[in-house]
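Morning, I've got a small favour to ask if you have a moment. It would help a lot if you went through both lines with me. Thanks so much in advance, here it is.

***
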Amino acid sequence: MYSDARKILPFLKGRKIKLALATNSYRSTKQIIDYFGLSRYFDYIAISCSIGISKVNPKLYLLIANKFSLKPSQILCVGDSYPTDIMGARKAGCGAAIIYRKKARAKNKYDCIYLSNLSQIKNLLS
C-alpha cells in the first residue's frame, strides 16, 4: 500500500467525506482490506465478484451513487487504470481522476484530472 493512501484516507474520513472502494477482485480481497485496516475508512466496499458488476460497467458507479443518495456528477472516482477505473466512471457521469505516478508518460492523454499522488486530493476539495 502506498504511503500517501495511509495519509489521505484518515484525512478524508476526518472531513466526513463518504468513501467507497470498488475493486475487480475475489471475495478473499475483503480479508486483505481488513488486514490492512482499510475497512474503517470506507462507507461502502464493492467487490466485483460479490455484487456481479465490474468497474468498467457504469452500473457500478450508479450503484455507488445510489448508496450515498448522490448524483453521479457529485462523485469523484480515483484510480490508476484508465480503461478499468476511469472509463466506466466517465460513462456513468462521475468525475474522474487518474493517479499518474510515472513521470515519464505524457500528461493530458486522458479526459480526466491527473494526480501524481493521493495527497493531491486535498487540492480538489472546496
User: Anything to note?
Assistant: The chain has one domain: 3-124. The mean pLDDT is 92.
